[in-house]
Amino acid sequence: MLGFISRTLTFFGYLVAAGIALVPFGFLTARLLPVVDLFAQFLFAAAIAALLLAAVALICRRYRLATVSGALLLVCLAQALPYEQTPQAKVAGPHVRLLSFNIFFDNQRLADVVQAVRALNADVVVLLEVAPHNRDLLRPLDQDYPHRIDCWQKRRCDILVLSRIPLTDLEPSLSIINTPPAWAAAALDIAGCRFALIAAHLSLPFPFHYPGEQAARATSLTQIVQQIEGPKILAGDFNAASWGAVVTDIADATQLQLLTGYGATWPTGLPTYLGIPIDNVLASRSLLFLSRELEEIPGSDHRGVLTEIALPSESRCATPH
Fold first, then answer.
1. How far apart (Å, rounded) are the C-alpha atoms in residues 237 and 256?
2. Residue 308's beta-bridge partner residues?
């Protein structure tokens, strides 16, 4: 009887290991098989699961299973660590502090959100899931940020860009190709350096939408970003992990670098080492990431991403258009 129980537990152990293995497999093959990109999102959780399985296997003296689990843990860590490196640069010159987060459509603590945004004191703020029913509760921020793009007033958009720096809306000069996600684009000028900010909110992945929809909208967004010349920053809720095929494809196609750093942005109900970093910031290589901080946002299921970015010298700046 004990032998049967032992064999059954071992069988289920290997079954769990096979489930964990789907995650690094998805990481490696997502570009060839986009449907498995969903598995790759759970790299943090897979690493923790592999660690726990290895510990249980050792306690139960299932050394072969422990070896397999340990190998899976190392693979997951090797895949995740490049995306966990925090910026270390310190440079003089003009900087911009950018705060980006999803406020959560039905947030009941928007007065606290206003106070949190004020306390973080960013130069530019990108808010997602803004709609008529919650915009008025965010109006106090208009006093702090006199320049705005109210993209949420347009069909298929839920973005509000707030800025202390004058904004020039770039949308009228850009061609919309196919069906992009919610997006807004603006040109800004700080200390003589002009750059573009593109805010985006991608759709949910399969199975929440039909296969290929998220990738198709990402491609459309990429084609919009490619039309903008000069230094640029792309920020928002991508509904995809930093290391997933969706985000890395955007980065490669637009030649933007991805801001990496410790911790996940969603969901806030889980520790940062168990969630998924779906709120991302990318920038031209002429811009330099100085810091990335995750901020708790009252009433939201997303953590905010507070980024400090150094702008290039005036001689290297180009006018976005």
1. 16
2. 97, 291
Number of neighbours of residue 88 by Cβ within 10 angstroms: 8
Question: What is the C-alpha separation between 226 and 196, in angstroms, rounded?
Answer: 12
Asked which of 83, 112, 129 is the last residue of a domain, the reply is 83
248 and 104 in one domain? yes
Residue type, 239: N
Percentage of the residues of the chain whose pLDDT score is greater than 90: 75
Q: Measured between alpha carbons, how far is 163 from 94 in angstroms, rounded to an integer?
A: 16
Structure tokens at 83: 């995306």
Total tally of structural domains belonging to the chain: 2
- Predicted pLDDT at 2: 44
CA nearest neighbour of 150 among 139, 101, 140:
139
Residue 89 belongs to a domain: no
Domain limit, last residue, from 63, 83, 103: 83
Tell me the average pLDDT of the chain.
Answer: 91
Angle ∠(258,223,220) on CA atoms, nearest 5? 95
Say if residue 37's pLDDT is above 90. no
In terms of DSSP H, where are the helices of the chain? 2-29, 37-40, 43-59, 63-80, 110-120, 132-135, 141-144, 213-226, 245-254
Is 321 a member of any domain?
Answer: no
Per the structure, the complete domain to which residue 23 belongs is given by 2-83
Q: Is residue 18 domain-resident?
A: yes
In a shared domain, residues 101 and 74: no
Domain containing 181 — which CATH number? 3.60.10.10
Whether residue 10 is found in the same domain as residue 101: no
Q: What is the pLDDT of residue 118?
A: 98
104, 128 in Cβ contact below 8 A?
Answer: no
pLDDT digits (tens, 9 = 90+) for 40-67: 999 999 999 999 999 999 998 899 999 9
72 burial via Cβ count (<10 Å: 0-12, 13-18, 19+): buried
**In the block, which residue shows the tokens 């689990």?**
69
CA proximity to 220, closest of 179, 251, 250, 255: 179
